[in-house]
Design a protein that fits this description.
The structure is a single chain. By secondary structure, the protein is of the alpha/beta class. It has eleven helices and ten strands. It has helices at about 1-5, 30-55, 75-80, 85-95, 120-125, 155-170, 185-200, 220-230, 240-255, 305-320, 335-340; strands at about 20-25, 60-65, 105-110, 130-135, 150, 175-180, 205-210, 235-240, 260-265, 295. Helix 5 links the parallel strand 3 and strand 4 (about 130-135). The chain is globular, with a radius of gyration of 23 Å. It starts with a helix and ends with a helix. About 25% of the residues are buried.
Length: about 350
């Protein structure tokens, strides 16, 4: 990120002072979430700032986390009135009115997962001629949003293109994309991106379905699998492992695991929150329903000495700066590596 800024701007100001780069985080505005999540995410952002300062001494990077205090109540109440562009605009113009020296460069950082929710913020950033960086894919041509750039280490487009290649390679004319609405937001982003990409680039016909695993019964799973069987023999799944097992168990009862149907699931990375996709069924016979399942995931990051030292540094920062002490065997969240990048 800093490298791009240096390449596209003057290295020092006209006064010879360091360039002030202000990063405005507009995603973590619900204060209880900030208090709960920041002790874990903060060290990744802090270490990234430290590395930028060491690598580019001409940059003075500061971060601002917007707090939306206009709505009291629960998270659901806050979501109802969620208006990041309003909060962002208020912050931007309040800073101007305060008379403080504005930063040389301002960057809006948004880590939400639904592209359409980023559109109003993208409009504000375009009007203010300010860079907006998100982990979601810009849903329309970047030319329409000249200041919006996607920065992510998640293999979103790689998996979407893989789906397209598989559909063309095996001449699958129809397929179903199904995702669990209660799964981690990463899967919402995967399903949204894959749907948009395949709808635009694939010649195959798609049925796009979602379900709520928290309220689904065995009968519900059977019903949705029957609906799928009437449309296609290729099922692309986005969600946790336990609902997938329920879907495939229902599929087995409908004789959909006899080799005539294909199930493909994707993972952004391995995490206990997503469940175990490398399960072993007690039934190892030829009619084992899980034998028709293909799981796609990125190659796990090897535990290098540098990464081990970094994780130890993050744990120390969490303890010293944020009063959070990790358990003896507790691992640093995988997401911190992505946030740092």
């Amino acid at each position: 990120m800093a490298q791009g800024l240096v390449n596209s701007s003057i290295v020092t100001t006209t006064t010879g002072l360091p360039i002030h780069v202000e990063i405005v985080n507009i995603a973590l505005m619900y204060w209880p979430l900030i208090m709960a999540g920041y002790p874990r995410l903060g060290p990744a952002f802090d270490s990234a700032t430290e590395e930028i300062a060491a690598t580019f001494p001409s940059l003075n990077v500061t971060q601002v986390y917007l707090k939306d205090s206009s709505t009291e109540g629960t998270f659901d109440d806050w979501l109802t009135y969620y208006n990041p562009e309003k909060t962002l605009a208020e912050y931007f113009f309040a800073a101007e009115k305060s008379g403080r020296t504005p930063p040389n460069i301002t960057i809006f950082l948004m880590t939400g997962v639904v592209a359409e929710n980023s559109l109003p913020t993208a409009q504000v950033s375009a009007e203010l001629d300010t860079l907006l960086m998100t982990i979601v894919l810009c849903p329309v041509a970047e030319g329409i949003w000249p200041t919006w750039r996607t920065v992510t280490v998640l293999p979103i487009m790689t998996i979407s293109r893989f789906y397209q290649v598989m559909l063309e390679r095996f001449h699958w004319s129809h397929f179903t994309l199904i995702w669990d609405t209660t799964a981690n937001n990463f899967f919402t982003m995967f399903a949204d991106a894959a749907h948009n990409y395949l709808a635009k680039n694939s010649k195959s016909q798609m049925m796009y379905l979602n379900f709520n695993s928290q309220i689904y019964s065995a009968a519900d799973y059977a019903h949705v699998m029957l609906k799928i069987s009437e449309y296609s023999r290729v099922i692309l799944y986005a969600g946790h492992s336990e609902p997938l097992q329920a879907l495939m168990t229902a599929a087995a009862k409908l004789n959909m695991t006899n080799g005539e149907y294909v199930f493909i699931a994707s993972l952004p990375f391995r995490h206990a929150l997503f469940g175990t996709f490398q399960w072993k069924s007690p039934n190892q016979s030829s009619d084992n329903p899980f034998k028709c399942l293909l799981v796609i995931e990125p190659t796990p990051v090897p535990a290098t000495e540098e990464l081990t030292e970094m994780e130890h540094h993050w744990k120390q920062m969490s303890k010293e700066k944020y009063n959070l002490t990790y358990g003896q065997d507790e691992k640093v969240p995988c997401r911190l590596k992505a946030e740092r990048l």
